[in-house]
Structures are given as structure tokens and as C-alpha cells.
Design a protein that fits this description.
Helix 3 packs antiparallel against helix 6, helix 3 packs antiparallel against helix 7 and helix 5 packs antiparallel against helix 6. With 175 residues, the chain is mainly alpha-helical. Helices cover 85% and strands 0% of the residues.
Length: 175
């Protein structure tokens, strides 16, 4: 499907453009262009958040002395594209490794937990609002509302698609 879409993309665009009403075609094109910019900004911002979190977790876990801490931190950062899952999986995996490595010494396990607590606080209070919210053009309250609404309406899939849909709705409302 991808091959044929890429091969015939100009024909697909011409067919869609030909189906638009002539009097409002430029408005529809502008709205689609703005929606595309908002969704692309969300994806780029989320990728930067994942990169930052992977670095924070990887370096933090290596500093506290966890074996394979850098690898675990990078994995946690990469899968943090899914809200809360990256932090949950990374913290569970890291704390399990810390319990196995620092068995009688609970201070090492506490240090690992503190690394994830700091990373999660930075994500929620600094990284996501600045890197994702500013690029999408939505206030952080609207992003949180979109995540809650998407989660309650469509569950896990709703959480994944909530912010891009809210970004498109924001473009339409501003119009």
C-alpha cells in the first residue's frame, strides 16, 4: 500500500484537490496545512522528550551504579512515547535489577527510584509542557484534559491519539 501511495501520490493529491469545493478550497488547504504542522510538532516534541528522558534515565542509572543502567534508561526513554508506560516499565525493570544487585543494601534501590522520580517530575513539569505543548499550540491544561477524555472514551488507544486529535481540534477552533 505504501509503495502504491508513494508512486501515485501526485494523482491522489490531485483527486482530493479536485473534490474540494472551489469557493472554499484555499481555506481547507490552509486548515489541513496548519493541522499537519500541529501534529508534526507533537511528534517532534514527543521524540525530543523521549530522547531527553532516555538520556536522563541512562546517565542517572549509570551514576548510581546499576548494571546495564544506561541500556535500561535508554529503553525506558524510547518507550516513554506512550504516556506513563515508559516510566512504569523502566522503573519496574530498574528497581527489579537494583533489588537483585543491591540485595541487602536498600539505599541503592532508593537511588534508582529517585532517578525515576526526578525523571518523571522533569517530564511532567518541564519537558512535556515546553517541548510538546508549545509545538502543538495547546495549553497544558487542554493537553491533560485531552488525555483524560481520550483515555475514558477509547482507553489505551485514546491516550495515544488524544493529543494529535486535540491539536487538530485546536486548529479548527482557532479558525
Amino acid at each position: 500500500v505504501t509503495f502504491y501511495l508513494l508512486r501515485d501520490w501526485p494523482k491522489v493529491l490531485a483527486a482530493i484537490d479536485g473534490a474540494l469545493p472551489l469557493d472554499s478550497a484555499s481555506t481547507v488547504r490552509d486548515l489541513v496545512r496548519d493541522s499537519n504542522a500541529a501534529v508534526a510538532g507533537y511528534i517532534r516534541g514527543q521524540a525530543l522528550v523521549c530522547l531527553c528522558l532516555g538520556t536522563i534515565y541512562g546517565v542517572g542509572l549509570s551514576v548510581v551504579g546499576l548494571q546495564f543502567g544506561f541500556v535500561i534508561g535508554l529503553i525506558a526513554g524510547i518507550i516513554s512515547f506512550i504516556p506513563f508506560v515508559g516510566t512504569l516499565v523502566g522503573a519496574t525493570l530498574s528497581i527489579g535489577m537494583a533489588i537483585a544487585q543491591f540485595a541487602p543494601d536498600w539505599i541503592g534501590v532508593g537511588k534508582v527510584a529517585v532517578v525515576f522520580l526526578i525523571g518523571h517530575l522533569l517530564e511532567g513539569n518541564v519537558l512535556s509542557p515546553k517541548l510538546v505543548g508549545d509545538r502543538v499550540g495547546l495549553h497544558p491544561v487542554w493537553i491533560m484534559f485531552a488525555l483524560l477524555a481520550g483515555g475514558s472514551l477509547l482507553g489505551f488507544v485514546g491516550v495515544l491519539i488524544a493529543v494529535p486529535i486535540a491539536a487538530v481540534i485546536g486548529v479548527l477552533v482557532r479558525y
